[in-house]
Amino acid sequence: MTRGTTEFIVLATTKVGENAVVVHTLSREWGRRGFLVPSARKAGTALLLPLNILEADVVENPKSELWSIRNIQARDTLNGIRSNLHKNTMSLFLSEVLFRTLRDGAYEDGLYEWCVSSILTLDALEEDFANFHVRFLLELAGALGFRPTFADVAPFAGESAPLLKPFLESGFSQAMLIPLSGQQRSDLCDTLLRYLEFHTDQPVNIRSLAVLRELYR
């Protein structure tokens, strides 16, 4: 049974057998959910890159809770992300954060729309985006309903606490211009990941943060 065309954000993929993959997605209708793509090679691996925004038909399987998707198409090309090493690496970090933070079946009103807006903003930025992932973590906490204040986050920050205030008190454009070293960005990300881990009550071990550390040294 086909349930019609739906939009998805790709969070991660897991290989199943020789040619199939499970695509872990976030959507407006289903929240965080995995779908089977039986012919991943035919669909194209580039189509299933993390943070890609897709349109596909959902096909219900009456014998399994693992439904499949077919007729997959890219809703947006994201050339601004894919053609830039720093943005592409950042997209791996952001998708892993969402994958580790959101539980299967999790649904937050407005989360999908916020994620799409964030992805398209990163894609469109031509300069001054080095702080984007720090701002993303703060806004994600808000999108999940935590509404972080300095008093909330400071206990997780240690010596990085003074760096938090400018981000919490600035709008998006101003936050992109806050001068930070690569180490300071990394420390802030560690702080905000610990904050998310505390509030989601599950480990948030982000392996791609190490790649960002190296890139922004």
Give a structural overview.
With 217 residues, the chain is α+β, with helices and mostly antiparallel strands. The chain folds into 2 domains: 2-74, OB fold (Dihydrolipoamide Acetyltransferase, E2P) (Beta Barrel), CATH 2.40.50; 79-215, de novo design (two linked rop proteins), CATH 1.20.1440. It is built from 10 helices and 5 strands. It has helices at 40-43, 79-82, 85-101, 111-124, 132-143, 150-153, 161-169, 172-176, 182-200, 209-215, and strands spanning 2-16, 20-27, 31-37, 53-59, 68-74. A 5-stranded antiparallel β-sheet has the order 3-2-1-4-5. α9 runs antiparallel to α10 (209-215). It is globular and about 55 Å long. The protein starts with a strand and ends with a helix.
Strand content: 15-25%
Distance between the termini: 51 Å
CATH architecture of the largest domain: Up-down Bundle
Name the shape in a single word.
globular
C-alpha Rg (nearest Å): 18 Å
**Percent range of helical residues:** 40-55%
Helix/strand order, N-terminal first? EEEHEEHHHHHHHHH
At the first level of CATH, the class of the largest domain is: Mainly Alpha
For this structure, the CATH topology of the largest domain is: de novo design (two linked rop proteins)
Mean pLDDT level: 89
**Looking at the chains present, what oligomeric state does this protein adopt?**
single chain
